Amino acid sequence: MVDRQKALLMVLLALLIYPNDIFGGAFQPEFSGPITNLTVPLGRDATFTCLVKHLGGYRVGWVKADTKAIQAIHDHVITHNKRVTVSHSDHSMWNLHIKGVQKEDGGLYMCQINTDPMKSQTGMLSIVVPPDFDPDATSSDMMVGEGGQVKLTCRARGVPEPRVSWRREDGRNIIIREPFAGSAPNQKSHVSSVTEFLGEELKLTKISRNEMGVYLCIASNGVPPAVSKRIYINVHFPPVIHVPNQLVGAPLGTDVVLECFVEASPMSINYWVKDPKGAMIITSVRYDVQAVPKSPFEVRMILTIRNLQKHDVGTYKCAAKNSLGEVESNIRLYEISGPTKTQTWPPFYDEEDEVVYGSAEVDKADNRPPTDNTVYGRVGPLVTPSSAIRIGKKRPMINANSAADAHRRWLPVVLSPLVSLTIVCRRWWWW
């Protein structure tokens, strides 16, 4: 009898202490918090958490709401998707794990408790995709003749829809030319200069050599990383030569520098020749030939003639040639009077400070606009600009007046001893 009473007492205590674990519990299970919606980049892991209290002997299940596919019931995974697993903590926190989410994993997920009627709550899994370019609908490097037009296309895909913009890699502005409404294609158009252009298509019309270079197509949608594509536009045109000084004078024995500026695309073959022989000049002891790039299409040609001699005087030609044409321009080199390196001058004279100025520098000194010496293609005889001058330090000059002043300064010094000697002689004679 005593043992029976003890058993009933133990059951009563168990019901009081563990009401939810005996016969379904004294309280119905319920959710203690909502399921958080998830936004996960493609390929990352996602975890839904369902919070439950008073679960008792009931069970928790997971269902993908849009397909009605059961994912898991309590501790057992039902779906054949090997990337799906479940876990729980103290029967109050139930987790659904999806590893390496794919696009098809996106949608509404439901956490259920098998009560009667069933209790459930849902959470949304949104899959975001970083931007990427469609290679079949995106332009590659292009070549266009100067004055022509080109259309660049950049198609990007991603979730959400990417934003596409254009910039120049060198930081320069993009020139947009749009014809006025109702105007013919060859008439004037509205020109704007922008640092960034928005849109999948970039149309460049009446393109110039200065617009040559790399254009960047940038796609972003807030999902890192943003992506960019480099598209190089190569603008072709025949060579053009600009000569700053077409007439250069220098004294014998000095070093002379001749220069030409060449613009060409594709890059031209540049060389120097001297008339009337017409032989190409190459670097040697007497000559130094250099070509210094200034931009993708511009080169500075420099010819240095060392220790100028009589036979070096004459006409020099700088020439450029590419697949679209050829051009040349003349520079006449002549002798001017002046000291050579073998002559000796007073110590304060520094021969290295001498500078040979051509017509362009003379124009600057006289505040006159410089002569435009640009040569396009083959042209007729060149118009000779104003004569070059040579400006250096002033040398000491000796003229008649300065000589007379010198005599006057030295005369008292020479005569004073002679007068004294004459007086002494006369005194001695009288004695």
Automatic annotation (TrEMBL):
Record localization: Cell membrane
Main location: membrane
Pfam families cross-referenced by the UniProt entry: I-set, Ig_3, V-set
GO CC terms of this entry: neuron projection; plasma membrane
Domain Ig-like span(s) in chain numbering: 29-126, 131-228, 238-334
InterPro entries: Ig-like_dom, Ig-like_dom_sf, Ig-like_fold, Ig_I-set, Ig_sub, Ig_sub2, Ig_V-set, Neural/epithelial_adhesion
Keywords from the named record: Cell membrane, Disulfide bond, Glycoprotein, Immunoglobulin domain, Membrane, Repeat, Signal
Signal sequence extent: 1-24
Listed PANTHER family: CTX-RELATED TYPE I TRANSMEMBRANE PROTEIN (PTHR12231), DPR-INTERACTING PROTEIN ALPHA, ISOFORM A (PTHR12231:SF255)
UniProt name for this protein: Lachesin
Organism whose genome encodes this protein: Camponotus floridanus (Florida carpenter ant)
Source lineage: Eukaryota, Metazoa, Ecdysozoa, Arthropoda, Hexapoda
